[in-house]
Amino acid sequence: MKPINQTIAHLKPSGIRKYFDLANSMEGVISLGVGEPDFDTPWHISAKAVESFEDGHTHYTANRGLIALRKQIAGYYHSRYGIDYDPQSEILVTVGGSEAVDLCCRTLISPGDEVIVLDPNYVAYEPAILMAGGVPVRIELTQDNDFKLLPEDLERAINDHTKAIILNFPSNPTGGVMTREDYERVVPILKESGIYVISDEIYSELLFEGEFCSPANFEQIRDQVLVINGFSKAFAMTGWRLGYLLSNADLSQQLTKVHQFVIMSAPTSAQYAAIEALEHGIADTESMRREYESRRNLICARLNRMGLTTNVPKGTFYVFTNITSSGLTSDEFCVRLLEEHKVAIVPGTAFGDSGEGFVRISYATSMENIKEACSRIEAFLESLHLPSESVDSHHGSHS
Ligand code: PMP
């Protein structure tokens, strides 16, 4: 047979999958590996999809999505984050944030263009860049800097071949956040270079401290920024497959061409549900956020007490825990924890090379599961018979 596209042939499957397959083949496993809310979609949101079927809304919508939904999205970004987008020309409704990532890459990248990603980063970015013919260039983030992007690192990574950077704050997997002050230090560099800024804001509602800030909040680079957001995390709607992409009108028109030929329009029933989510669902989001916050507090306290240094994440439902005190690699730690104590978590290396020495633990699960999983992790560490100073020296919580 003739060879398939070699870029695809050489793509590595997601490093998360292996653990799910292993966990699924075992009984009694507690999974702290998942990347989705454990809550079901609030029923008043689902009910609007049911209603849409009853009303016969079973056809395509406009390519960009229902205008009523685009108006809701515009109103939401205006009132919640102080950023204005025109529902007619600057908003595109997509099949999840996932489609939006792919659309950005395919629309912006010409073969050989460099695209900067932060390491560790969300698993879909580098494959999307590669599939579009681009070259990912990584900037390493560190626990000591709370996994933020630093201006000197950004400056060093940009050259004449750089087309774009992909940012994701609050971040999967680190839970790191960029504040307004943090952005103020990198925005002049972004402005000067003129590169596109793809800002994946899918966790914008899951922020526990301070105010959410987007690079699009900075008027001087607003037209360079492509904002990705969606309904999966904020409204517990992962299965609905709905997201959106905000950008200046010229870019939006180009993005819409790709969407038009590949997708046509996002699922109609999901769009009706999403209107309800934005109109009446914010209170649900707030109660889910409070619950995530209590779980975060519990899990961070327990992990730090066991000697696994864990920065308290300011957003998302993940902690990125330093496991070097165990003397194991990330992969060894995760495989042994799963096989010997039946807790599934994900090695930091699934998100990039600088994830070595870390594991990602999701707390999108019940308090009861979190407590039991922590006890099992503790038992696992005890079984390793670590010298006491290797644990003690890592005591104390990083903020
Ligand atoms: N971006 C990030 C950072 C994510 O964590 C996810 C989901 N895990 C997505 C995008 C995709 O989300 P969806 O396609 O469900 O909107």
UniProtKB/TrEMBL annotation:
Keywords: Aminotransferase, Pyridoxal phosphate, Transferase. It comes from Bifidobacterium animalis subsp. lactis (Bifidobacterium lactis). InterPro entries: Aminotransferase_I/II_large (IPR004839), AspAT/PAT-like (IPR050596), NHTrfase_class1_PyrdxlP-BS (IPR004838), PyrdxlP-dep_Trfase (IPR015424), PyrdxlP-dep_Trfase_major (IPR015421), PyrdxlP-dep_Trfase_small (IPR015422). Its cofactor is pyridoxal 5'-phosphate. Its EC number is 2.6.1.-. Residues 28-377 form the Aminotransferase class I/classII large domain. This is Aminotransferase. Belongs to the class-I pyridoxal-phosphate-dependent aminotransferase family.
